[in-house]
Amino acid sequence: MLLGPPGAGKGTQSKLLQEHLRIPQISTGDMLRRVIEQGTALGKKAKEFMDRGDLVPDELIIDIVEQRLAGDDCKRGFLLDGFPRTAEQVRALDGMLGKMNVKIDAAVALLVPRAELIRRLSGRRTCRNCGTMYHVTSNPPEKRGVCDHCGGELYQRVDDKEETIGARFDVYEEQSASLRPLYRERGLLREIDGTKGTQQVFDRILREVRQAA
Ligand code: AMP
Fold first, then answer.
1. How many CB atoms lie under 10 A from the CB of residue 33?
2. Which of 7, 69, 113, 171 can pair with 120 through a Cys bridge, CB separation 3.0 to 4.6 Å?
3. Percent of the chain with pLDDT over 70
């Protein structure tokens, strides 16, 4: 499980970990964005919350995760990215894992100061097709607006615009920051300096996960 505020690097790191460990990345943010692209009723409802920087209601996200974890590809393990985010989601996850007879090996928290988070989020561009993330100055694509991996279109997420970033931090502090002490109490928390380069952070996470598993 990866924990951390928006912009800490959960998405980037979990995509790398997914390839390396060959276990699926369960990113609730990516799943919601996909549902929105499909234009379903669920997507329309979720979009309202996401565009404001709010969390989507627990019952909605819990259902989505429960269905996803039932997939065959989760039998060898999985990586949670962006879930849980509230105490209620932790309770629901505990119930799901209990039923599956599965335990979390580690809750990896990425630590990054606020100024760096804002720099990352406001310059972030995301591939509409595969979700790969870039930064306009520190990690630009080879061709402006085009994903290096799949040729998909890069866009700025509505919730990465400066006016929404502050709301997302507030929501994180109010609802999600308390998950760190909770997983520390359970002896699962691994705190990692998320300001280092992508590869360095990745190596550190891998070391922690290997020790824990
Ligand atoms: P992310 O891509 O993880 O930054 O998530 C983007 C947005 O999706 C969040 O700001 C929320 O609106 C929504 N979201 C993602 N995961 C969750 C979750 N576990 N609970 C509630 N809302 C979520």
1. 20
2. 7
3. 100
Whether 91 sits among the annotated catalytic residues: the reply is: no
Task: Give, for 15, the enclosing helix (H) or strand (E).
Answer: helix 10-21
**pLDDT tens across 181-191, in order?**
999 999 999 99
Residues near 141 by Cβ (< 8 Å), separated by ≥ 6?
125, 134, 147, 148, 154
Residue 38's nearest CA partner among 119, 106, 128, 125 is 128
Task: Tell me how far apart the alpha carbons of residues 145 and 132 are, in angstroms, rounded to a whole number.
Answer: 12
In this structure, what DSSP letter does residue 173 have?
I
CB of residue 32 inside a 6 A radius of ligand 1: yes
Q: What are phi and psi of 206, to 5 degrees?
A: -60, -40
pTM of the model: 0.94
> What pLDDT was estimated at residue 28?
97
Q: For residues 77 and 21, give the distance between their C-alpha atoms in angstroms, rounded to a whole number.
A: 9
Q: How far is the CA of 195 from the centre of ligand 1 (A)?
A: 22
Is residue 213's pLDDT more than 90? no
Task: Assess whether 124 carries a catalytic annotation.
Answer: yes
Angle separating helix axes 58-69 and 87-100, nearest 10 degrees: 20
Q: Which residue has its alpha carbon closest to ligand 1 atom 5?
A: 29
Hey, how many other C-beta atoms are within 10 angstroms of the C-beta on 118? Answer: 16
Q: How far is the CA of 55 from the centre of ligand 1 (A)?
A: 6
